[in-house]
Design brief:
Blueprint: H1 3-7, E1 21-22, H2 38-50, E2 55-58, E3 61-62, H3 71-87, E4 93-96, E5 99-101, H4 104-112, E6 123-127, H5 137-146, E7 150-154, H6 167-174, E8 178-182, H7 183-187, H8 192-203, E9 209-211, H9 217-225, H10 229-232
Helix pairs in contact: 2-3
């Protein structure tokens, strides 16, 4: 059914140089639902470099029911990817943070202030459940700020339970939470409704960062094939201000 998408001619001239740095991906092998091998990771790093990215901060899931990742696990595997990428002649800078699911384990980490992997600017990339809203979302995000971190909510366009009252997005942004939309959401990959919400969030200037959320090289191929690149250049994403790891 989707053969037309995969057979579509790849646009080798696509560039996301204006984005500069990607802050959301899953390129640490064998730790979550992203890549499984170092070779896969290097292939994705190479593709990211060819798309014009100069830096990437990959963000494995930390979700205690599924992916019990620690800084030691993530940073150890990161060094393997860095070394293999260097040996492959790649020059893109590679760092790592994490994508934290707002569960009880995260609350414990936050209370101690230890073992948290942050994006530049002491930012914490966090995600919510897809099917059922948390009762204490606003309180948890406020706690993150209270502890001296800057919350960045991953892919808000995918939390469909917010659609009945989109004003929640403005409330989150006004409350100090930065929002990060997925490029894949703009390609139609997750469905028409999610694409429409991603576009609505952009048009209402509620999005701070754009991320790939790439789990496999096919995701990057889809981004390269997309016809949305000229469209997204109209919006002032702030990825470029995150210039150091």
């Amino acid at each position: 059914m989707l053969n037309w998408l995969f057979n579509k001619k790849v646009n080798k001239h696509v560039t996301l140089e204006h984005i500069g740095i990607d802050i959301h991906s899953h390129m640490i092998p064998g730790v979550d639902d992203g890549v499984e091998t170092v070779a896969e990771a290097v292939a994705m790093v190479s593709k990211m470099q060819s798309l014009g990215y100069r830096q990437l901060i990959t963000t494995p899931h930390v979700m205690w029911d599924c992916y019990r990742n620690t800084p030691e696990i993530i940073l150890g595997k990161l060094e393997e990817v860095r070394q293999a990428s260097k040996e492959a002649g790649l020059t893109i800078q590679i760092g790592a943070a994490a994508e934290y699911f707002l569960d009880e384990h995260f609350n414990q980490l936050l209370s101690t202030g230890k073992d948290l992997l942050t994006l530049p600017g002491n930012r914490l990339l966090v995600e919510l459940p897809y099917s059922t809203p948390l009762m204490n979302t606003s309180e948890t995000l406020f706690s993150i700020i209270e502890k001296g971190y800057q919350p960045v909510l991953a892919h808000p366009e995918r939390y469909t339970y917010f659609y009945s009252d989109p004003s929640i997005y403005k409330k989150l942004a006004d409350g100090g939470c930065e929002l990060q939309v997925n490029i894949l959401s703009l390609t139609g990959y997750y469905g028409e409704n999610i694409t429409k919400m991603a576009e609505w969030l952009l048009k209402n200037n509620l999005i701070t960062f754009l991320g790939t959320d790439a789990h496999k090289i096919q995701h990057l191929d889809m981004i390269q094939r997309s016809n949305k690149h000229n469209w997204i250049t109209r919006y002032p994403f702030q990825n470029e201000k995150l210039t150091s790891f």
